[in-house]
């Protein structure tokens, strides 16, 4: 009997190897990032998903980060304030954290590498990888970051790339409402400010990978985003993976993982 494919949801709970260091970019308990020091290429900043909710943190992308570090990439998994009972995230706090964290991490990771006697990442703009809600935040960062803090490229994996449509579909039972406060018609400024659609050409490589059988974040959201975004930036690319779901994209054991690493190498080129 052939070996059974691993359940990609396992990646959410299986412990990952510990990071080399944890750095802090601000005063809040969530203003931290796990650092794994690979080679001397540009830093890869990982923005985790979980529908922006506090019940999901950066730990579930530890296997992704460890696998990339093993391939020679220095990786930082940035944490941010999220939504939920007692949490302090949402609009605009979550977005402020992403701006601050991504901008600060190249210097913080270089300092951590020096303290550990390890090679520092290249002095180049970081590459962003985001999954699910983190894919939305990665695309949003590229569209809204000041020019001096622009990333070197963005890889969005199954991003929640259309917030109004995600609200209409009620993804994860009110995730967008919890993030932005309510419906698009009631909070138009929040939806406009949180939109990942660029207002101008990004002048950086941007790749989206989405599985056609994703039920957590339907691929139609990425398709809608690309149609809207290409009005400003025709260079945004969408790669659709047949018979691939949501969690395979962050599972290094999956057949889809090769597509993720190929896309990341394309950003470096």
TrEMBL record:
Alphabetically sorted, this entry's keywords are: Hydrolase
**Domain of life, source organism:** Bacteria
Coiled-coil regions in this chain?
Answer: none
Return the InterPro entries for the record.
Answer: AB_hydrolase_fold, BD-FAE-like_dom, GDXG_lipolytic_enzyme
Domain BD-FAE-like: from-to ranges: 41-225
Q: Would I find Cell inner membrane among this entry's keywords? A: no
- Keyword Ligase present in the record's keywords: the answer is no
Q: Which PANTHER family match?
A: AB HYDROLASE SUPERFAMILY PROTEIN C4A8.06C
Would you tell me the protein name for this molecule?
Lipase
Organism of origin is Asanoa siamensis
């Amino acid at each position: 009997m052939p070996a059974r494919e691993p359940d990609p949801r396992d990646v959410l709970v299986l412990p990952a190897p510990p990071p080399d260091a944890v750095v802090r970019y601000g005063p809040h308990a969530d203003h931290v990032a796990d650092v794994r020091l690979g080679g001397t290429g540009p830093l890869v900043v990982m923005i985790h998903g979980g529908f922006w909710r506090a019940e999901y943190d950066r730990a579930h992308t530890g296997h992704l980060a460890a696998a990339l570090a093993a391939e020679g990439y220095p990786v930082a998994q940035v944490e941010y304030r999220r939504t939920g009972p007692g949490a302090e995230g949402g609009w605009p706090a979550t977005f402020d954290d992403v701006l601050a964290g991504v901008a600060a991490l190249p210097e913080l990771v270089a300092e951590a590498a020096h303290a550990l006697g390890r090679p520092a990442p290249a002095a180049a703009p970081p590459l962003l990888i985001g999954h699910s809600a983190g894919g939305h935040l990665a695309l949003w960062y590229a569209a809204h970051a000041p020019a001096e803090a622009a990333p070197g490229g963005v890889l969005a994996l199954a991003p929640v790339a259309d917030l109004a449509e995600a609200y209409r579909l009620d993804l994860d039972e009110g995730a967008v409402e919890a993030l932005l406060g309510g419906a698009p018609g009631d909070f138009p400024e929040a939806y406009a400010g949180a939109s990942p659609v660029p207002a101008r050409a990004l002048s950086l490589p941007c790749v989206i990978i989405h599985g056609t059988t994703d039920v957590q974040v339907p691929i139609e959201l990425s398709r809608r985003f690309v149609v809207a975004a290409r009005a400003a930036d025709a260079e945004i690319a969408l790669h659709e993976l047949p018979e691939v779901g949501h969690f395979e994209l962050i599972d290094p054991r999956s057949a889809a993982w090769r597509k993720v690493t190929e896309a990341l190498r394309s950003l470096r080129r």
